[in-house]
Amino acid sequence: MQRNAQEYEVQTIFDEQQDHYQLLYVGWRGNKRDFGCILHLDIIGFLYVILLLFL
């Protein structure tokens, strides 16, 4: 499904104490709320774990 940019926005979540970071899309698909993870980043010591989710 292709998303209309006017109906969706990008939001960030920062948990600096646990070093977890996310980039999300949120919006509406018809009359239902829709959201999902675009990028998830965990910092573990000097090791960076990046999960990219392609929609």
UniProtKB/TrEMBL annotation:
* UniProt keywords, alphabetically: Membrane, Transmembrane, Transmembrane helix
**TM helices/strands, residue ranges:** 35-54
Q: What organism is the protein native to? A: Amazonocrinis nigriterrae CENA67
**Can you say what this protein is called?**
XisI protein
**InterPro entries assigned:** XisI (IPR014968), XisI-like_sf (IPR035943)
Pfam families in the cross-refs: XisI
Keyword Repeat in record: no
